[in-house]
Design goal:
Blueprint: H1 22-30, H2 36-40, E1 46-48, E2 64-78, E3 82-90, E4 93-99, H3 104-109, E5 115-125, E6 128-132, E7 135-138, E8 152-154, H4 163-180, H5 188-194, H6 199-207, H7 215-219, H8 224-249, H9 261-269, H10 276-289, E9 296-301, H11 307-320, E10 324-328, H12 332-346, E11 353-356, H13 362-374, E12 379-382, E13 396-402, H14 409-418, E14 427-432, H15 438-444, E15 449-453, E16 464-469, H16 473-485, E17 489-493, H17 501-518, E18 524-527, H18 533-544, E19 550-553, E20 566-571, H19 579-586, E21 597-602, H20 608-619, H21 623-640, H22 642-645, H23 662-675, H24 680-688
Parallel strand pairs: 4-6, 9-14, 9-15, 10-12, 10-13, 11-12, 13-14, 16-21, 17-19, 17-20, 18-19, 20-21
Antiparallel strand pairs: 1-8, 2-3, 2-5, 3-4, 5-6, 5-7
Helix pairs in contact: 4-6, 6-8, 8-23, 8-24, 9-11, 10-11, 20-21
The chain binds adenosine-5'-diphosphate and magnesium ion.
Length: 697
Amino acid sequence: MNTATDIDLEQLPVTDLKGVGKRKAEQLTRLGICNLQDLLFHLPLHYQDRTRVTAVRDLRHGMSVVVEVEVESAEIRYGRRRSLLCRTNDAGAVLWLRFFHFSNAQRLSLATGSRLRCFGEVRDGPFGPEMIHPEYSSLDGQQAAPVEEHLTPVYPATEGLQQGSLRSLVEQALEIAITAGVREWLPEELLAGARFPALLDALIYLHRPPPDASVRQLEAGMHPAQRRLQFEELLAHHLSLRMLGKRGRERSAPRLAGGDALLRTFLAALPFQLTTAQRRVVDEIAADVSLGRPMMRLVQGDVGSGKTVVAAAAVLMAVQSGCQAAVMAPTELLAEQHLKSFRHWLDPLGLETVWLASRSKGAQRRETLEALAAGTASVVVGTHALFQDDVNFAALGLAIIDEQHRFGVHQRLALREKGGSADRVPHQLIMTATPIPRTLEMTAYADLDCSVIDELPPGRTPVTTVALPDSRREEVMARVEEAITAGRQAYWVCTLIEESEVLQCENAEATAELLAEQLSRARVGLVHGRMKAADKERAMAAFKAGETDLLVATTVIEVGVDVPNASLMIIENAERLGLAQLHQLRGRVGRGASQSHCVLMYHPPLSRSARTRIAAMRETSDGFEIARRDLALRGPGEVLGTRQTGLAQYRIADLVRDEPLFPKVQEAAERILTAHPDRIEPLVRRWLGDNTRYAEV
Ligand code: ADP
Ligand code: MG
């Protein structure tokens, strides 16, 4: 059933086609097209309907249509921009054609009385419906060319390669495919149940939709032929990551099975018991690291779910077995806080925790590096400075990355290589506070095993959230005053739309001064990104110790900061922040037993998307729901930072729209991994090409 002949389209280079020389082949390569299969799977982004002629009287703004008209006049206008304006007529209805670039010959050819067929997008112009730069041809003298038989596909193109040329190449490839067949990689047993159109039929439909095809359905990506291919594309991406994970796990890693004496001492000293969810995740980690194969595990837990303790437990497993552990955080502030927690927990156990950030210099840095290389330091906490070339470990057994969203796939791989040798790598634990929607988990993190801390420590009360225009700042200050008088603490987060960190920090400084003046009873602290590490730490420590009541800060406190007595969070210009960021900031409160509040101050008028974000914050505090909405609002590229993460672009799949396909994709992946492993590689190559983004592993 797979092939009509033995021809494999992947084996046929594009240069086999008519009209493809060296130059065109190079242009095609830029689109990732090297062979006929690539061409066939180069799918249209849009469609135009040139299969029928529309009467001018039926035109509506925004339509892209073919019309047939007679020229009434054509004259040059000198308005803001010189243009050629041509008045045309079809059965008494007027359509204007407007050209900003035109030759004299062109002007003369648009003679009064000549008849034209035009294709273009209609818009409401100053005098009525108009088309700007329509494609047109003369209907005079010759037999009118027939209109198109199919909807016209519009392909992703590149400079120098026109749509017409792409269309004719795809047509040639399609003709060959019709005789040669296309390899079907999806398992028969799966296809039988799925009621998908056959692969070749789907491709023919999408490259040549019949005139009665719905452009609307096609543009929405909802036609069964598209679903068929979206499914296959999602599957290919998912499989590529699964293979990445599999290859990673085939390497060896130190067996961390030295017993749990340290862990037990640590847990016994904690002032609380682990939640059931924390205990489960600690057990999952312990099972992973005892095997001699590298753990590659992602721990998801909403803000405040207690990931740090879990990280510490993992660190102790490494240390107990004579290995070192590295803990990396995305910001210095967060890393400093981890350092404090780890020292607080590990010093009593007689373990040395050292510090490494970009600002570590001179003797401190040298000592840290020596301690790590000699193995006298068991644990290092730091920022991405841990990646630097001169950092060497005596025996790195575990790398923990906190708040993975700030780092990408590549960094995650880099840290693993750092402590590894050709045949031995450290275990890896990745923690994220932004719960990852299922779709992203399967597409961006499918190489990892996942654990979820789906429970908050007991005694937390949900944060109530209100939104207020900044004209009501006085009221907000009154609330702050009230909270402080009642012995509680508050955060005041300043945001500025400017990219400049300097301005952000100056703004926070000014706000802190102003608030200190206006709230005479409040002891005001300040934290921002440009303060010296020691000053930041001092300000944080003072706030934590209750020596200051109000902490004015930039969004540096977004992640990790933990002060349970703080129960009020004010966020200025909340409309400028993304949903995930707002959720993280809000997560700074609601950590103690008292009722906490979050005030989102905004500057009206709110844009539609800002209104949606603020509404979402008021409606839910569930991190997974927030993450889902964030994904729907921003798309996966933005949520993950596509460039950073190396998350590949999809051709026709869309992680938000195609979420319903995922359970089946997963099922198909399991099926292929177990029953048809030989199909993985060709399937991945079909959709990801020779894209080597994961090849460095
Ligand atoms: P996050 O998951 O956001 O990183 P943290 O690890 O900072 O959360 O923990 C938040 C707070 O909850 C900390 O003060 C921590 O000591 C506390 N905590 C963690 N686990 C528990 C628990 N099982 N019971 C009570 N408090 C806990
Ligand atoms: Mg944390």
